[in-house]
Design goal:
single chain; about 500 residues; alpha/beta; D-Amino Acid Oxidase, Chain A, domain 2; eight-stranded mixed beta sheet; seven-stranded mixed beta sheet; 16 helices; 21 strands; FAD-dependent oxidoreductase
Length: about 500
């Protein structure tokens, strides 16, 4: 990861960056080779080595540990999965509740591992507020999302409605009309987590090679620019940074996400804002924003990502001053006391969006290739769940995780995940959706009747959501608008990008 401490707040919290790990400069053998030293790859290695200490495991990283989304996200650890309804929507309620319990418990599981391993990553389980915080129309959106969460199988104890007074007890927005409190959400410093996890697995005996870009993933072999690893199992854990692997990039594309951090706020300012529990928050706009209070008293805030023509991954950390100002203005709209706040950091990265609009954990034993991803911005928590799941699949463990509906064995990602449509269709669709959502939000902001325009625009945007699935319900469409993500809430930017109706 480049040492751009002027851009990425998380990097600036590391007092001393470790020396680069040696690059791979030979042909070696291992039991498992993992491509990508982000959360998915490192968690897979952690659970493999914990469950089977005798395994020789090698992790290959093109740059530095955490270079991709794992070191650039907004720090949300969400007890949910983006696209969960596509797996559980037709299951019996008892099975839905079981799946929801797995993803909810995943948050606590992460916290427990960090505590046991003494990984100091500022993990804080304060829950999250999905607030109707700017426009009255957002009340119906959030209540629809709450109904959807309950329909999925999340219980009232974990997902409940707060009225305006109850909301104000937790956070004081400019217009806090009410909102959802989701108990199973935590926040974390992702760079502390990814670097601490890397050091932990090295102590367990896992080998990490940095500056070792894999140029080809073949059957039982990963080839780098200066070496190769031969292994029965190759794990591709590149998520939104698979641009060198054309075969994977056809199925999972990068979507850019941008984040800012304020200077540390005074206690008087925090008294006006609230958030004494350091909870996370998001509002109900289709152009979603999200944030949380950091361990050192800043507000970390992300909003309004984008899709780059050609599906280019974002490697440079820094973002433009215009991008910073836009997010600062959105933050001040939620909390007027921050009107003149100083923004100390602004950075960005790329999340991975599957063409099936749902995450996946896949092991193809015939080719020896395993992969997980498509987290759509909720990867901080999901990568732990899927890394743990891949370990169970590789070790052929008959576990609860291996039985989940998002797990696939004896099949290739080429057959399980559809290919994205070619350019310029993706880029054009992203532009149409962005402007359409912005128009709808402008009407909500006016808070005035628009009997001709507003209903038409709302129906048009709902139609765009329906393109994601022929069977998606009204509540599901609302979910696609407001799903909370770790790196970005802009999953919705590309959710309706496909120009066809087919999903399966």
């Amino acid at each position: 990861m480049q040492q751009d401490t002027c851009s990425n707040f998380w990097i600036s919290t590391i007092a001393q960056w470790p020396e680069p790990r040696p690059r791979l400069e030979a042909s070696i053998q291992a039991d498992v080779a993992i491509v990508g030293a982000g959360f998915t790859g490192l968690w897979t290695a952690y659970y493999l080595k914990t469950l089977a200490p005798h395994l020789a495991i090698v992790v290959l990283e093109a740059q530095r540990v955490g270079h991709g989304a794992s070191g650039r996200n907004g720090g949300w650890v969400v007890g949910n999965l983006a696209g969960l309804e596509r797996y559980v929507g037709e299951l019996p309620m008892e099975r839905r509740r079981e799946c929801c319990q797995v993803v909810a418990d995943n948050v606590d599981d992460i916290g427990n591992v960090l505590e046991r391993g003494s990984i100091a990553a500022d993990f804080n389980k304060g829950g999250a507020l999905y607030a109707a915080a700017r426009y009255p129309d957002q009340i119906a959106i959030q209540k629809g999302y709450l109904a959807h969460l309950h329909e999925l199988g999340h219980d009232e104890a974990n997902c409940s409605w707060l009225d305006a007074d109850q909301l104000a007890e937790k956070a004081r927005f400019r217009n806090g009309y009410g909102g959802i409190y989701h108990r199973q959400v935590a926040t974390v410093n992702p760079v502390k987590l990814v670097t601490g996890l890397a050091e932990t697995i090295e102590r367990l005996g896992v080998t990490i090679h940095e500056q070792s870009r894999v140029t080809l993933i073949g059957q039982h072999e990963a080839i780098t620019e200066q070496g190769a690893v031969e292994a029965p199992i190759i794990v591709c854990a590149t998520e939104g940074y698979a641009e060198r692997f054309h075969d994977f990039k056809k199925h999972v594309i990068p979507v850019q996400s941008l984040v800012i951090a304020t200077e540390p706020l005074t206690q008087d300012v925090w008294q006006e804002i609230g958030m004494s529990e350091r909870l996370a928050f998001a509002d109900a706009s289709r152009l979603i924003n999200y944030g949380h209070r950091s361990a050192d008293g800043r507000l970390v805030f992300g909003a309004r990502g984008s899709y780059a023509f050609g599906g280019k991954s974002k490697h440079r950390l820094a973002i433009s001053q215009d991008d910073i100002r836009l997010r600062r203005d959105l933050l001040a709209d939620l909390f007027p006391v921050l009107q003149d706040v100083t923004i100390s950091h602004g950075w960005g990265g790329s999340l991975g969006l599957s063409r099936n609009f749902r995450p996946h954990g896949i092991l193809d034993r015939e080719s020896g290739i395993a992969t997980a991803g498509g987290y759509a911005g909720e990867g901080v928590a999901a990568a732990h769940l899927f890394g743990r799941t891949l370990a169970d699949l590789i070790l052929e463990r008959d576990s609860r995780l291996a039985s989940m509906p998002w797990v696939f064995t004896n099949a290739s990602h080429r057959h399980l995940i559809k290919r994205w449509e070619p350019e310029p269709l993706r880029w054009l669709a992203a532009q149409v959706i962005t402007y359409s959502y912005a128009g709808e939000e402008a009407l909500m902001k006016r808070n005035k009747p628009a009997p001709l325009i507003k209903p038409v625009l709302t129906k048009a945007n709902d139609f765009l959501h329906r393109l994601s699935s022929e069977r998606v319900s009204h509540q599901h469409r609302l979910y696609l608008c407001v799903t909370p993500s770790g790196i970005s809430r802009y999953r919705l930017l590309c959710i309706a990008m496909k120009p066809t109706l087919s999903l399966e």
